[in-house]
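go over my protein:
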Amino acid sequence: MTSWSEDELRAIAISDDLHISPLRDDGVTYGTPTWIWSVAVDGDLYVRAYNGQASRWYQAALRQRRGRISAAGTTRDVSFEPVVGPVNDRIDGAYSAKYRSSPYLESMKRGQARSATVKVSPNA
């Protein structure tokens, strides 16, 4: 996997327009774009499924491990990786900073959504 450029990650991190499209089960066709919150932590991009692990896009992302995102005027093919462990605390902090005025913030930092955290990495 490659890393995000600083400029690209910064643009995505400040935008509020990320759409995620994991590959469908055929491994070729991209799924319907789903608008989702995203944050950057320690040079990496993270997303969470509001509806937790039952979310269709989350299940497809983990099954296929590949897809596409569109954000900040850029479309990139990406890889998905589930996230567990202490980095989730820093992700919570990033969500709090970016979405502090949203009534949905606390739900994004709790068990259901937190358990469905995904690292998004650009493909080469």
Summary: The mean pLDDT is 95. The two ends are 7 Å apart (CA to CA). The first strand starts at residue 19 and ends at 22. The chain has one domain: 6-122.
